UniProtKB/TrEMBL annotation, chain A:
The keyword Membrane applies. The chain crosses the membrane at residues 96-126, 138-158, 164-186. It comes from the Bacteria. Pfam families: HAAS. Keywords: Membrane, Transmembrane, Transmembrane helix. This is Putative membrane protein.
TrEMBL record, chain B:
Residues 27-99 form the Transcription regulator PadR N-terminal domain. It comes from the Bacteria. Signal peptide: none annotated. This is PadR family transcriptional regulator PadR. PANTHER family: PADR-FAMILY TRANSCRIPTIONAL REGULATOR (PTHR33169), TRANSCRIPTIONAL REGULATOR RV3488 (PTHR33169:SF14). It comes from Streptomyces nymphaeiformis. InterPro entries: Metal_resp_DNA-bind_regulator, Tscrpt_reg_PadR_N, WH-like_DNA-bd_sf, WH_DNA-bd_sf.
Length: 193, 123
């Protein structure tokens, strides 16, 4: 009989099996077969305890072998990549966010309540999303929040001679600023797969 | 298993990182002149100190080389003991080895350039 039946060897192999439990069954079996075969050749028939110990020492710790097996797994490499890769974009949510932010200007025409509602929901969606980086969020927020300020300021400054042109100008700015924010948000999104 | 001294531990880390990139090509090179079985490959690697590692970690590497089609395996009966799995270099394996053999001197010279050339400044 071969040296693979030595108790030290069976202990060792069952430790490897336990440490490598993350491997697909087929791959784990293959690894154990390789090690068993190696030990059969390295130890020989004598099963001299010292030879067994030396052979096991040279093989290295079961944990090290399991770690090497993990590193060679394509799934492990893929998992490591996806762990750092961004999640697939939730396009519906992102579009709703951008549209809400974009229409805060239009909604202002209908009244301050719809405008404020769109603003609050839009900003909440924006800041809880990880689709945009901080700079983009700050810019979009600044553009959107600035709109009512600009509109009120414009209305106040121009109150003396408020004509159709002035009204149109204030409206245009009020609509354009959030729309710009929306366009920037949509552009910053990764392209759909 | 890990040497207690911090310096040799650090050297071990460097060696292990370097080994990671080149070990599979050393294995392919060992098979250049004909099939070998696992223990034989491991003994050859162990004979060169920088390639010394826990021998058992070579088997996952060999398994991956087999999956990638760079080596083939064949179980052969042995007159003196248990059957042995022989590893053979495949054509893609030979190509990969040739590519590495071509890149390696340039790579080595590139590293040597930075390590040995005087760059002024701190010496």
């Amino acid at each position: 009989m071969t040296g693979t039946e030595h108790p030290l060897v069976t202990d060792y192999l069952s430790t490897v099996e336990r440490e490598a439990s993350f491997l697909p069954a087929g791959r784990r079996e293959e690894l154990l077969a390789d090690l068993r075969e190696h030990l059969a050749v390295a130890v020989g028939d004598e099963q001299d305890p010292q030879a067994v110990r030396t052979a096991l020492e040279r093989l290295g710790s079961p944990a090290a072998i399991a770690a090497a097996a993990r590193a060679e797994e394509p799934e492990a490499a893929a998992a490591a990549t996806t762990a750092v890769a961004p999640k697939p974009p939730n396009r519906t949510r992102h579009t709703i966010t951008a549209v809400l932010i974009g229409v805060t200007g239009f909604a202002g025409i209908a009244g301050s309540l719809p405008s404020a509602a769109a603003l609050i929901v839009g900003l909440a969606l924006l800041w809880t999303s990880d689709a945009w980086d901080r700079d983009t969020k700050v810019l979009a927020t600044a553009l959107t929040v600035a709109t009512p300020v600009v509109v009120l300021l414009g209305a106040f400054l121009l109150s003396g001679r408020f004509g159709v042109m002035e009204l149109l100008a204030v409206l245009a700015v009020g609509i354009a600023l959030p729309a710009t924010a929306a366009v920037r948000l949509l552009r910053a999104l990764p392209k759909a797969a | 298993m890990v040497p207690g001294e911090a310096r040799s531990e650090a050297t071990g880390k460097v060696a292990s990182q370097l080994r990671k990139g080149v070990l599979e090509y050393c294995v392919l090179a060992l098979l250049r002149d004909g099939p070998r079985y696992g223990v034989e490959i491991l003994d050859e690697l162990a004979a060169v100190s920088v390639m010394t590692t826990s021998q058992g970690t070579i088997y996952p590497l060999l398994s991956r080389l087999r999956r990638d089609g760079l080596v083939d395996t064949e179980l052969r009966e042995s007159a003196t003991g248990p059957a042995r799995r022989y590893y053979t270099l495949t054509t893609p394996g030979r190509t990969a080895l040739a590519e590495f053999a071509e890149s390696w001197p340039r790579f080595r010279d590139g590293v040597d350039h930075f390590l040995t050339a005087p760059h002024g400044g701190s010496a």
